[in-house]
Design brief:
single chain, alpha+beta, N-terminal domain of MutM-like DNA repair proteins
Length: 353
Amino acid sequence: MPELPEVERAVALLRTIGKGNKIIRVETSEDSIVFQGLPSHEDFGREISGRVLKDVFRYGKCFYIELEGAGRMPVLHFGMTGMLQVRNQAPLQYMTKIQSSEVWPPKFMKFIFHIEDKSSLTITELAFSDARRLGRIRLATHPREEPPISRLGFDPIISMPSPMEFRTLVLRRSCPIKALLLDQSFSAGVGNYLADEILYQAKVHPEQRCNTLHQTQVDALHREVADVCRIAVEANADVDKYPSHWLFKHRWGKGKKAQSMKLPSGEPATIKWITVGGRTSAYVTEVQCLPHKQGAGTEAATEEESDLTLLSSDYDDRPAASHRKRKRKSKTIGSSAPTEEPLREKHSRLRKR
């Protein structure tokens, strides 16, 4: 799904096309799920049409459009499959097959802005589409002070906390560190692939409990949260420009013939997949190790969520809703071996027969 870098790229596109120009018309398509807090999709278009686009801003995975004149501002979230597309240009997409730029309006379109250039008077059409309908379109008077943005945690690019503040935020939690990184009320904008990259670069196992981390580990996490997000944004979310030593280049092999990976030393690396916080997590066994007292297959091997307050069901990055312990399944490149059913659970089940 689009994460912080992909949303930043979309913001840059919209800013380039629209800043200082007027939205002369808005086409909308009925969708009571994606359009939130509005009587109808048509109300969105009526409130936006005829206003000048002053600027576009991102916070976490949300972005909002500042408009001149009376009225509210659009607040947008891509969800899993949301995207922007300019007419006659390929859409901005994330790890999926690019749609044809010749199809217009694009399939699953929710709205189209008709933007008039103040100099040339030419019209540019920009569409927001969302196939899985997990994106959200809202209007807000003060976007940064209203939900959903007001409920978000720090943004690694905009408002990264100091090392000491970060240490306090992390060490008071008891959930797996991967679940905490995915919680948008902790780190806004960090999604699954960014979290895996941060943990790999910091050499921290995704299942390690936050309150068991050493100071050196927390400091490494603080550094990598900022650095990984910055590097991805500087690359304009172009995956071909991501560093060759990133786990990102190799993490997509689950269920397929996986690519080989080598450590900087030249030694082979083993990528393993587990479920943490309700999400599939990739990690390198030679680099990311659990402390002995928190071995795999014990309390750590559960689909446990962050113990922060969940934002809302609108967010696909929310951790799993249940605290129930579940049998962990894991997959390693070249092999597949789920863990054994716990003996206590097996005997209990047999007694009930």
